[in-house]
Amino acid sequence: MKRFLSLLLAVIMVFTLAACGGSGKGENGKVYWLNFKPELDEALQTLATSYTKQTGVEVKVVTAASGKYEETLTAEMDKSEAPTLFNVGNAAGVKTWGDYCLDLKDTDAYNALTTTSFNQVDANGKVCSIGLCYEAYGIIVNQALLTKAGYKLDDIKDFDSLKKVAEDIHARAKDLGFDAFTSAGLDDSSSWRFSGHLANMPLYYEGKDAGWTECPATITGKYLDNFKAIWDLYTANSATDKTKLATAGLDAEAEFGKGEAVFYQNGTWEYANLTAADKYAMNADDLAMIPIYCGVAGEDKAGLCSGTENALAVNANASEADKTATLDFLKWMVTSEEGLKCLVDNLGGVPYKNAPESENPFFADGNALLAAGNYNVDWTFNYTPNVDDWRAAVVNAMVQYCSGGSWDAVKTAFVDGWATQYKAANS
Amino acid sequence: MKLKRDAAALNSKLLRRPIQKCFILFLIPTFGAFIIGFIYPFLQGIYLSFCKFITTRNATFIGIDNYKTALTDSTFLHAFWYTALFAIVSLLLINILAFAIAYALTREIKGSNLFRTVFFMPNLIGGIVLGYIWSMIFDGVLSRYNTSILLESKYGFWGLIILMCWQQIGYMMIIYIAGIQSVPEDMIEAARIDGASGWQTLIKVVIPSVMPSITICTFLTLTNSFKLFDQNLALTGGSPFEFKSDGTIIKTTEMLALNIYNTFYGSNTAARGTAQAKAVIFFVLVATISIIQLRATRNKEVQQ
Fold it and tell me: Is B139 within 8 Å of A97 when comparing Cβ atoms?
């Protein structure tokens, strides 16, 4: 028995050692994509397998857990087999990872772009990353339920009309069987919708007034009252008790998908899940997206919030073979029919020349608004200094506010927090 | 086949000498693992605490600036005092309760084996899981009063104390049981014959005899409290935050290890060196405190 045991242990040891040294480097380059969007993972795995089948080039796609991209990237970048393709989606990303980015200017993928406005460029003009897609968010409306409640989409033109409709639906929620807004969850899986996306509203209007072209050292929070107004509207007119937003383990997508609420603040990327037969199988014609109204003057001419954080960079420190392989893969993805179809199906707005038209009705809504002369609400939050820390503090303050605390904490986190994080990021 | 176990043959110099010469060969695997897994990262960590870096592969040396930043960081100081308070409270509670239970369960109560197993079991659950489970339990109760563990620092503090007691008492109890059982029966009997009361026997005979167990248990609870991370992260993650007028954000229930982690992985990548410096300070601190504690309790141990 003892002899057998020691034999077994020896065998295990040999295997472990072999596993450590076993992954020899191939001569051909490899692609290692550290993906940033969990909802995209499945599609990318399929795409990667297909590319490998066609070309023999190994493509590894790893997806970081929601909200943990920066940590995963830091850890992975330290390895000898670091990601060759990764996400650098905002000014903070360029600040951290700029030195690791290959200049993508005039690469094949770059030349296939229809617009350069989603690229991230550093202070010296180096193109650190190129936009993979653009997205839009706003308030998703279940039109079938809206009709049932006796309203139509045209009734909502600004904050006051949105408020009127929402409060009326909420008041009749018991009779109607559904409520106005989905839960505004403040746990990690959902808080970004508010500390990131909704917070863009006050940031955008302030930045528009002040003409920001880069991250300002301080902000004034001039439009925070509007932020409060829309947040209060969300939390007062939903079936969820607002003191439980951080702890109840809420799933707003499911609430909306099951027809429990009319309004759901989220983005174009939700289309796939909401309509997928094995998920919520909603009727695409029932879905519409309207701008987020928060009571700023002239906002009846607002469009959807459109921009992207999804921009790809190529690791400048990778071996030449890996760099070439990665650039080739990137080119294939944004020029080939199969690659573009996958991107369009899953992401909707793809800023590349040969991209087919998306079926996603949210983009149609966004384009219709722009065509009617409305202004695009840019993703001003991409300027946020130390974005994760800033958002964490804002979320925490919002939780305190919702449990009966004062709004001042949110104001402090928002305005003073910005200055603190700016100082920390630039020290 | 019957193996021949001849002690004389094994001890003969002819056999022993060559084996003794080979001792290095037998040390190499473990020592190698120790170098890879401990010594090298430790030395590199110290080096990195003097550097500015994003990934550890390309770090630039900048001297002691990181230490200056770390020591003037008010969040770090808050985390230190919070951790110290937590360590003292949990040290006392865990050890007193664990000893009491151990003492009760060595009184030959019916089903004491079952009790021992049940009390020990929480120790088998991982920290993150425990944190989430307990946050649900606390919130289940607190939500009746329209509040949550994330909203008040004192809930977070006592919540973590309850969690740690629940998890660690069983483990310490096992150590105390072993200690109590090894107290010689004749000493207790002698005490009884001399007319000592139950309380006197406990204070004058049992506790001095289990001093080695007390040493090890206080050491374990003290270092565990200082190093606590998973449970802290999962239970409150530092909430609620306190917003100071100068813009600094104090995470009121953040302990030292979590503070280091948050500094390192926060989006302010300039602070990674600072986090590294904090980690070195943290090591020195934990090592010093535990050495002092070991000295202090060792002195109280009696020879049997």
Answer: no
